[in-house]
Amino acid sequence: MNVIETDLPGVVIVEPRVFGDARGFFLETWHQERFAKHPLLPDTFVQDNHSRSARGVLRGLHVQMRHPQGKLVRVAHGSVFDVAADIDPNSRTFGQWVGVELSDTNHHQLYIPPGYAHGFCVLSETADFEYKCTDFYHPDDERGIAWNDEQLAIDWPVEHPILSKRDVANPTLKEFLKP
């Protein structure tokens, strides 16, 4: 397993070791002992999630406030552009974001620590997106930030994404941070 630090503190790309041959491949998507040995990775998750989305779907940007979740995200089928955004006004990297392509061919994973906003858009015909969480999902605690917020200026690879009604109504980062 190779762990690559990004420009955002704690946000890392995980490249698992892939064993492949003419029959296909094998990889470990999570290994508690190996994760426990790396200071930037958690060794405990409490919930696994799986979503399927069509090309052009954009989910996010989402964050839980009272029960922040760290997320280890991956794509089992297809490809997505995955984004972590620093929304902590006290952080030295406030307003910055990291975006990576995750796919069933590169097998990369992204670990996003608690407190970052997260979102992704689907690049392939469909994508099966899987993620492990460090805290449970609390629907009453989830909030969102507009995917096209000018302050964040995320360079999404889609101009007219397919959004949920909730994500269409997400506030800007400035509105989000108002008390």
Number of DSSP E strands: 13
How many whole angstroms does the radius of gyration measure?
A: 16 Å
- Please outline the major beta sheet: 6 strands, antiparallel
Give the N-terminus to C-terminus distance in angstroms: 42 Å
What does this structure look like?
By secondary structure, this protein is mainly β. It is built from three helices and 13 strands. It has a six-stranded antiparallel β-sheet with strand order 1-2-10-7-12-5, with no helix packed on it. The longest helix has 5 residues, at 32-36. The mean pLDDT is 96.
Condensed summary:
The chain contains 3 helices and 13 strands, in the order E-E-E-E-H-E-E-E-E-E-E-E-E-E-H-H. The chain is mainly beta. The chain has a 6-stranded antiparallel beta sheet with strand order 1-2-10-7-12-5, with no helix packed on it.
Descriptors for this entry?
single chain, 179 residues, mainly beta, 6-stranded antiparallel β-sheet, 5-stranded antiparallel β-sheet, 3 helices, 13 strands, 7% helix, globular
